[in-house]
Structure formats: structure tokens, C-alpha cells
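Obj.: predict assembly geometry.
Materials: sequence records (below).
Method: joint structure prediction, all chains together.
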Amino acid sequence: MINFLRKALLIDILKGLALTFRYTYTKAYTEQYPTVKVKLAERYRGAPRLNNDPETGETLCIACDLCAEVCPEDLIVVGSVRDPESKKKVLTHYTYDTSRCLFCGLCQEVCPTNAIELTQDFELATYDRASMLWDRTRLEKGWRRIPDHKDYK
Amino acid sequence: METVLTYVIIPFIKIGIVAGVVLLGVAYLTYMERKVLGHIQVRLGPMRVGWHGLLQPIADGLKFVIKEDIIPLRADALIYSIAPLISFIPALLVFSVIPFGPPQAFENLLRWVLPFFLSQAAVENVVKSTVATGGFVADINIGVLLVLSVSSVGILGIILGGWASNSKYPLLGALRSSAQMVSYEVALGFTVLSVLLIPQTLSLVEIVQKQQESGVWYVFLQPVAFVLFFVCGLAETNRNPFDLPEAESELVGGFHTEYSGFRFAIYFLAEYTNMITISAMATILFWGGWLRPFPNVAWLGFLDLVPGFIWFMAKVFVFLYIFIWIRGTLPRLRFDQLMQYGWKVFLPLALANLMVTAAILLLV
Amino acid sequence: MDERTILDAHELEINLGPQHPATHGVLQVKLKLDGERVLDAECVIGYLHRGVEKISENRNYVKCVPYYDRTDYIAAVSNVYGYILGVEKMMEIEVPERAQYIRIMMTEFNRIASHLLWLATHALDIGALTVFLYCFREREEILKLFEALFGARLTTHAFRMGGLWMDLPEGFVDEARKFIDDFPKKVDEYEQLLTNNRIWIDRTKGVGVISGEEAVDFGLSGGVLRGSGVNYDVRKQRPYGGYDRFDFDVPLGDNGDTYDRYLVRVEEMRQSRRIIQQVLDRLPDGPIRGKVPRVLKPPVGEYYSGIESPRGELGYYIVSDGSAVPFRVRIRPPTFINLQALRRLVKGLLVADVIAVIGTLDVVLGEIDR
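Observations (raw C-alpha cells):
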């Protein structure tokens, strides 16, 4: 009998309707992206950046070539010369092809000096493919300056 | 002179106002749908165009107008072009008999405006007839019949649209759509009939006036009929949960697969106008039309300050909200289940309701 | 072009084409229809084939891993888990306990996320629009947790050989606890909208029925198999990675129809939540990475490691020839094998049900095509 009444009075449908009605006056979950800054985690694997020593301003990269070896796509090319006095390698060229990058993070993982780092920059869209091949200057510059994001590192 | 004024000029002005309000209402109904559906789904709906998206319907309309006008190569060009209009024009025509306000709604307004143009005796002549002063375009004594029959003509537009597209998917969708609408028209007709047994008139204005006299709205006398009417109305307008023929995720995109641009916009407008028609009929037949709540309770007389058409629009708004609310909640019925419900559940219920009402009226 | 008109009753061949809002990817299904009834269905796959197994033959064991994220992109954490377990077994690498617990927790989070996506798209196909957005709201929370721990939301590159990359960040445990405290209420909401809804029951009961024996014959696994009543869950049959330390139930269905598979997966979400609760309560301290040799050169041989991904039994068959690059890595995609049953399931159903059946098989094209 109860079952018949439940079916006749559409109780199951009314319960569902009550739930959705409750949601009409709750706060929406949307983040309105371009006007509101996106909060990303610290470990987010975004665009790469070649870091410099904060005191001396020189590059931290020791041209050990580990990042190029570990990259699954083989898209890092590290060029270096050996300095005749200190017998250490000095970085000359560094090329990173972001068009094929998987953003897997293996390069930043194996780097012994934290030179290559994946930042939180995800807005990488461009109009031509050639500009996705980043050289050392672009990598050291890091993010393109977007006025809203000046609080990001 | 007064006859021309009474029977031609004032009705034309009213037609203009009604058509304008209905079209604007349809456009902002799309906005309301997106906003309400958005909030049900914990998101925001349109926010960018205008403040909180208020100019969105205008942007949409502009988009439809400036799109390329495509007619498929093997489609029947003439019928392809006309079919949306065949859907839309009857949907709009129905509003000529729907009363927004009582028969004396504009009396005070006319008494204030007309003395600038006419003599006092002429003004009295004009104000005497409800054609000029009524809150409706026309009060026909077979109003309900006109609404039901004219809205049936709209189905033809769907069949023609699917046929003229000359392609498998629209044809299947059109046939399904029209089969659904025709089946639910039968049940709709019977529910309306059972309500009409009480006032015993087909004129929409008189139905509301009888509700005013008897002091009780017909929804309290005929609750089953109201629920049936609303559900059949959902099926008539191809809305969720009966919107399989035009759902995007089903196999066929429905009769409007091949349509784009302004013709698609006209089909869209026709569907939303039908929604408003069903809501308006539900308010008039069951919920007292332009009457204020508790029309015979004296101490609530201050509510009389609100003109009748505001009450009417508020009630229609509530029903439109329920349309959208249901769309956001329920899954879709499969087509064969939909037809089964229409013929095996709703029609017997409507007939049973009719017989029980008739029996009670005979005994009482 | 024959003289019969389009309305005559003869077989209609329709393409549920590769671009379709409801086929969860680029799946093409060729349907032979008699009016509205389906006579036959043929799946055409391969639109998303990227040659992942061939790529693996040219990368060493560590470099292969990011590619497996992209096969079943919705359950990326479990994918990588299966492969890494295989290699760790071959090389006999010890994984510390904290790493094991965290791995299990993240795999269970991934199971919840994948089932939420399944429910969202399944309900959307059947017409309930709001469940889609409610499920995605929960999934968003889980993806934020993934981002905090792994660095990416979808293609997580979650685990490394021998453990994890980095330990749990600050505040992770609190966020996770907050999520799983809220979660049962949300699952109740989905059930309130769907489980007893007569329209939902009409659409899913009795649709796509497959019996237990037939399911085993086809080689199905996952929710599809358990919906037909067969009690096979790799986490219970061949426990891996420490699952035998946690208790959880394996829900089973009765009739093997779409409704039962829906109930089984919703209950699995609740059971996953139970596992995560236990992990968070008992999380030990310690290192998160075991000792791993510098160059991974497993001994010559073959190894199969199967895990329970949200879709079924995901297996990695690794053939090693002693060098640093695997000779062959064959992935056993559960959905590929489940999809064979589509032909058997849709015979005699209506067209609208085909969409429901594709949804209930939990199809992900990345995994089918690799």
C-alpha cells in the first residue's frame, strides 16, 4: 500500500526536485577565470625556467646533460664548452622544445642544482609553432609578465 | 469614428504590445533557463555579456542573424525555408485569446487618455465594450478550442522541417517528435475537458470570472487534472523528461539537425513560445488567471492594488521556473517508454478523471 | 539508389560516428537497425592509437612511465601503479611502508575520481544534466589533491620506482580528511537524484543484461563482471602493494543489467572512501623511497602484473631482455576486452539504449587504442 502511494504521489521524483531546488540558492562553485586568479599548487608542473643564482646572477646549470638524457621526448639540447682554467663545463646553449613537452617533470627531478624547474605558468598559447622552441634567454626570463599575476614567484 | 477606434486602433495597439512582450519574454526565457539551470548545477550561467549576462539573449539573437544561410543541396528549398514559420506563427497566434487582465483592465487608462481626442459621449461609447478595455486582444467564446487547435498546427512545421531536410536523422527525429506531440495532445484534451465541466464555458475570460465567482481556483477541485495537464504540457513542448527527439546526446539530433542560423532560431522561439502558452493555459484553467490569491477574503484587499496582469505574469513565471527545474533534475525517457506512458497511463487517467468529475457534478 | 522509398522497412545502417557527444572519446559504432531495434553493432576503434607500446620499446624503464598516464587518462594514477609494481617485482626493490600506504590512498582517490566521471557522463547521456556537474564538483576537489601532491591534475606521473617522488605537502592530510568526511553526503545526493527515480530505473533496468558465465567467457572484468554477480576483484584475489592490510567489501550485483552496474560502482566509491579513511588513520612515518639502482636492468624474463583499475583488471606484461630498455611492454586494457561484449549486449535493444550500454561499460578510448 505504501509503495503504491509512493508511486502515485511521485515521491521519488519530488525528492530529487527538492534536492535541486536547495541548490538554486547555494553558492556556485564556478571560478570566473580570467578575472579571478587561479590558485595553483606549489608543485604544479607548468612551463620550464632556467634558474639563476640569486646572489651572483649566474646560471645554476652545470651542463651535466642529465636532463637531456632523462627526457622521454629527447627535446632538451644542452650545449657547453669546457673552461680551460677551471676544467668545468660552462653552459653555452640550452634549447627546450615546449611543443613536444609532456610536462612529466623528470628533468626537474634529476637536475642536481635545481637549475631547470617547472613553474606554475600554464598560459602558453602562441600563434606560431616556431616560438614554442625556447632558447636560453626565453627560459631564463621565465614568465611573460601578465599584470594580474604579479604575486606569483 | 468610435467604432474604428474601438475595433481597429486599440486592438492593433494591444496586438503590438502583446507580440512585443511575448517575443521579449521568449528571448529572456532563454536567459532565465540558462541562469536557473546554471544555479541548479552549482555554476553561474552567462556572466560576461552585460551585467551578469543580461544582454546574452541579444548577443544570441545577433549571432543567429549574422550566420551564413545554408540550405542543403538536396533539400526541398521552399518547404525548408517555410517550415520554421509554420511552427512559429501558430505558437504566436495563440496569444491573441489569452487574457492577461480582467475585462475592465484598461478602463481607467482609457478614461484618462481619450478625452484629449474625443468628446465625453464618444469616450463612454468606446469604454462600454470590452474589446477596447479588456486585458486581452480578443475574447472569443471558443477560446480553449482555438488554443488547442492552433497549437496543433505547429506540429506540421516539425514534420515538414524533418521531411524537407532530406536526410535520415532529421526525418526520424521529426517523426518521433510529431508522434509524441500528437499522442499527448489527446490526453491534454481530455484533461482540459474535465476542467471545463465546472465552468461550462469555453471562453477563457469567463473561466477566470467563474473562478472568481465561486471563490475557489480549479486546481483545488481538480488536482489530478492539473498534474496531468502539466506533464502532458511537458511532452507537448518537447521538454525534459520527454525531449528524446531533440536531445544532443542521442543518436539523432532531431528535426532541426540541418537547420542553422536564423531558421534554427525560429524553431527555438517556437518551442519557448509553446512553453509560455502551456504555462499561461495552466494559470488560466487552474490557478485563477489574473486573480489575486484569496480573491474573496476581504482583509487581503490591499493586494488589489497590484494590477491583474502582474499576478498573471507572476504565476506564468512560476510555471516556467518549474519547467526549467524539471529539466535540471530528471533523466530522459526513452521513446517507446514515452509513448507507453502517453497512451497507457496518462490517457486512462485523464478519462477516469473526466468520468469521476462528471459523476460528482451529476450527484452534487 | 533503389526505387524503395526511405520509409520502407529495410535494414538501416547508421554510424554512431567517431565524433559524438556520447561515445566518450572517438569510438565509432556501426549499427544495423531494423526500425528502432538494433540487429548488430560493430565497433571501429583506432582513432586514438598513438603507438604507446611501440614507444615503450625505445625508452628505458623510467622514461616509459609518462606515456602510460596517457593511456587511461582518467585513472592515470592506477596505470602507472601497475607498471611500477611489475618492474619493482622484477628488480626486487623494497618499497617502504609509508610509500605503500600513500600509494594505496592515491589509487583509491583515483578510483573515486574515475567513478565520479563515469557517473557524470553516464547520467548525462541518459539525460540527468545536474548529476554531471555535482560529480565534477567532487572530482575537482580530488584533482586539487592530486595537484598538491603530484604536480598535475590529470596526467599525474604519480609514482616512481621504489616509492614516490616527494612526500605529502603541508595540509594534505587535513584536506583529504575534509574531503572524505563530506563525501558520503554527496554520494547520498547522487543516489537521491537517481537510484529510486522511476525514469532512471526505466532506462537502466533490464538494459544490457549479461549473465555471470557469459561475462567470464568474454573475459570481462571490473564493474561489468561484478555487476553480473561474479566475485572477482584483483585486490582481493591477488593482493598487491599492501591491500591485504585494509578491509573493504566488494559489492556484487544480481542481474547483470545496467542498473546493477550503477549500484555496484556507487558502492565501490563508498568502499574506496573506507580504505582511504583507514590509510589516513594508520599512516606511518618513514622514508618514501626505497633503494633503487642507478640504471634499471631487470633480469631476462617475463612478468605480468595485474591491478584493479577502476575499469577492470589492468595488466602489464613486461618482457625484459636484460638491457635498460624493455623488449616489449604489452598492456592488457580492461576496456578493450569489455568492449567486445558490446555486440552481445546491444542485440535487440533500441538505439537510445546503445548509448546507455556504452556508458555502463565505462569506455575510455585512450585505453582501448593506446
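Conclusions so far: Chain C has a mean pLDDT of 87.
To do: check interface contacts against the pulldown list.
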